[in-house]
Amino acid sequence: PGLFGAPAAADALPLPAEQAFGFEAIAGDGNTLLLRFTPARGYYLYRDRTTLRLDPGARAAGFALGAPRWPPSRPYRDEHFGQVRVYFDPIDVAVPV
Fold this sequence. Notes:
The chain is mostly beta strands. It contains two helices and seven strands. The strands form two sheets. It has a four-stranded antiparallel sheet, with no helix packed on it. It has a three-stranded antiparallel sheet with strand order 2-3-7.
């Protein structure tokens, strides 16, 4: 998915990515994927620094992703990237295919 936020406690070791950021891709109707992102407590997902891409096999089969439909995000001052839009809670993102 892209870049993600950092742990809330500066002295804590970060969780491995698979524990810090849950992710599921769920088939919606025949033309939509529902992407579910679930950040662990103290972590956040950057809306504008998250990229989506299909693996080469899906692209070769003629699949393409449309523009993701992000839910409303929260403004946040990030120490690395400045003012950004983030998600602290689980979100569902619909993506046309």
